[in-house]
Amino acid sequence: MAQTSFTAADVAERTAQPVLEIARGWLLSRNTAKRGEELGMLAGRGFWVNGRAGVLGDVDADVAAAGVGFMHPDRLRPFWETRPQGQSSQELAAEYAKCCADWGQEKLAPLGDETLVQLTSLVRRVVDAALPTTGALFAGWRAVPVPDDPGAAAALALHVLRELRGGAHITAVTATGLTPLGAAMSAAPPRGGADWARDLGWSEPYPDAESLVRLRQETEALTSRIVTPAYEALAESERAHFVDLVEGALAVSR
Predict the structure, then answer these.
(1) Which of 94, 236, 226, 64 is nearest to 156 (CA)?
(2) Contact of 105 with 152, CB cutoff 8 Å
(3) 45: nearest Cα among 198, 254, 168
(4) Do 184 and 202 touch, CB atoms closer than 8 A?
(5) Measuring CA to CA, how many Å separate 6 from each of 51, 60, 66, 165, 237?
(6) pLDDT tens digit sequence for 148-171
(7) For an engineered disulfide with 172, which of 63, 110, 167, 222 has Cβ 3.0 to 4.6 Å away?
(8) Structure pTM?
């Protein structure tokens, strides 16, 4: 690695995209989708909504929408209100967490137990240092019990880190005036653009993505500033190693 000295801000910036991509590995996996079908989730985003926001408890759909942040509340409500009879939100969150654990146990195992324990320890130090007010889903997922398996524990810790930045991003989007629709339109396809905005329940007319570039950059920078204090929990001597560990996890998970 060319750069051997990192500030906390460097680490937050450098690992943001890898952490997002790692979490997408299990969120979008066939096994996760299959488990949602087995549980009777509404096709499309039923498991994604109920699994992620289930950590909030049996709340109104608008509360779940506030936690998710980027899906139109009218789009989210049917998913939230059609969960299988007899299944609580907490139970579905536990099922979702198990999908994360199963994925991590399989995909991250090549790193070896010692490396996985190091990764989990460092990630947990970061997320434990963050204020719960950074995001409701972040706080909820941070409270999910840690699995015993090293790969499962690492996958869950990285997802909590993802939710940390996600909560900060919701705040940044509001603060800069980008708006949830603007955030959807300005992100790179396929997880951005008109089709993505439509999938999240936002109606046309859509803003031109190119007109949002500067505001998107400002929003991403603010997101990083919000989460950076948590990365101060890493000693200066640990930061480059942390970046290596996260990038290594991404490499084996693909």
Answers:
(1) 94
(2) yes
(3) 198
(4) yes
(5) 35, 42, 34, 19, 9
(6) 999 999 999 999 999 999 999 999
(7) 222
(8) 0.96
